[in-house]
Amino acid sequence: MIMNNENRITADVLVIGCGIAGSSAALEAAKSGLRVIVITKNLRLEESNTYYAQGGIVSLGYDDHPELLKEDIINTGDGINNPEAVELMATEGKKIVENILIKELRIPFTMSSPDALDYAQEAGHSRRRILHIKDTTGKTIEEKFIAALKKYSNVTLLPEHTAVDLLTVPHHSKNPTAYYKESQCIGSYVLENETHNVKIIFAPYTILATGGCGALYLYTSNPLSAIGDGYAMAYKAGARIVNMEYIQFHPTSLFHQDADGFLISETVRGEGARLKTRSGQTFMENYSEKKELAPRDEVTRAIYEEMTNTNSSYVYLDLASYAKIDIKKRFPNIHKICLNYGIDITKEPIPVVPAAHYCCGGVLVNTWGKSSLKGLYAVGEVACTGVHGANRLASTSLLEGLIWGTRASQHIISHFNPNLPYKHSDIHDWYYPKEEEEIDPALINQDWVFIRSTLWNYTGIIRTQKRLERARADLDYLRHRIERFYKEARMDAKVVGLKHGIQVAQLITHAAISNPVSLGAHYIEASEKS
């Protein structure tokens, strides 16, 4: 990292976010000798959706073939997937998993025997093809990536740094002649959380890897930091955003007042667990011939319907009565966490409820992670490669992040050009209001309650035109208040997050209103269809 002064920093590549997508991009760039800065708004570098991914990562099983995986991805995505992206994942995924995760990072995937990897089964898959480390796959992968990045002197890791806006020319340029040139991303305005100081990080290439937006919903499996910052910044900068109506809800998060959206992995159903009403009746056979192994959107709606029909706040997921495995050995973390809440999954069913889990849309990119805005790449959940279509197939997200994160940096390396048509002195410093308004946490918290409740109730699992219109009106009103507050308030990560959050809530709602076709994770009640 070269520092011109304390507020203006330069790098070859700026990576915003460090889950599997951001970390794989940073590692690939670092290996080529490029100067890389990685920022994350979190205190812990490891904190990301990747860290909490339990199930595993898609590869190809012993009786598997790329054509079978492609078919499963497209069937789950309701046929609107990008064929080129699906082809890339199915044909290149296994190779990149073996080269980077197994050979380079030495990820200790669970073995079924001393000489054979263990492949798990998950919903929507026609084969056992999920590599895993018991039920803490993401945690192990994330820790290995961060450890690897720390070994490179040309990598600077900056926790507690929040990306405020993407830096673009001509928008942020003082030079009027810049408007005659192609719009270009040249870095980011970045808030140092502790000091409230906004820095400029200049980079000819910026990679968005900010994850998803599940925490915009009242119930989510995501960490609370997953509020869609990347979508908001890319949209403001002028990059194309698509498919934001396709918000996938995970069928089974732990229902407990203190559990804070703890996920019960898809692989629990893959190992035989059955869903039951509170009275003990199985019900998935009434909704799909695949029963518990139906795609996530179908299982989620089935649970939602059963909860509505029985006036219940949850259903049960019963592994104890059906498992043919050693539950404690196969799911040690889930067993431990549930036991902390007084639930012994080896003896009793688990109370579960659906939760917002994954955004299938995002910043539109090609097979190299390149967005429509020059200089900007997007990888992982913040991107829309098109591989997921209308609904994501289980355990493809880690693989997508790994593939596109690696390929984005490979593309940058092969096309690297440090010369940009701007001068640092042409770029505006961050504007601070003359009289900064103090921040009232109660008001910010109430705004978040409003956003999350609105999305959950009106732009949630089952949508109607009336609900969506109500959401649009309510969110538009709140947006004006938040924008006015943002311009006057002291720079703070909470305020930046709120501004990004309301923007993304609107993107989701407006996309849902604009698409009258009920498909996959965008489900409109039949009576409300036009």
What does this structure look like?
There is one protein chain. The protein is α/β, with parallel strands linked by helices and 530 residues long. The protein is built from 13 helices and 22 strands. Strand 6 (111-113) and strand 7 (116-117) form a beta hairpin. The strands form six sheets. Strands 1-2-13-12-11 form a five-stranded mixed beta sheet. Strands 10-4-3-14-21 form a five-stranded parallel beta sheet, covered by helices on one side.
Topology summary:
Elements: E1 2-5, E2 8-10, E3 13-16, H1 20-31, E4 36-39, E5 57-58, H2 66-76, H3 83-104, E6 111-113, E7 116-117, E8 119-120, E9 130-131, H4 137-149, E10 155-158, E11 161-169, E12 184-192, E13 197-202, E14 205-208, H5 229-237, E15 241-242, E16 247-254, H6 266-270, E17 274-276, H7 296-309, E18 315-318, H8 327-330, H9 332-340, E19 350-359, E20 362-364, E21 376-378, E22 383-384, H10 397-414, H11 441-458, H12 465-488, H13 493-514
Parallel strand pairs: 2-13, 3-4, 3-14, 4-10, 14-21, 20-22
Antiparallel strand pairs: 1-2, 5-9, 6-7, 8-9, 11-12, 12-13, 15-20, 16-19, 17-18, 18-19
Descriptors for this entry?
5-stranded parallel beta sheet; 5-stranded mixed beta sheet; Flavocytochrome C3, Chain A, domain 1; alpha/beta; Methane Monooxygenase Hydroxylase, Chain G, domain 1; globular; 530 residues; 22 strands; FAD/NAD(P)-binding domain; 3 domains
Q: What's the gist of this structure?
A:
This protein is of the alpha/beta class. It contains 13 helices and 22 strands. The protein has helices at 20-31, 66-76, 83-104, 137-149, 229-237, 266-270, 296-309, 327-330, 332-340, 397-414, 441-458, 465-488, 493-514, and strands at residues 2-5, 8-10, 13-16, 36-39, 57-58, 111-113, 116-117, 119-120, 130-131, 155-158, 161-169, 184-192, 197-202, 205-208, 241-242, 247-254, 274-276, 315-318, 350-359, 362-364, 376-378, 383-384.
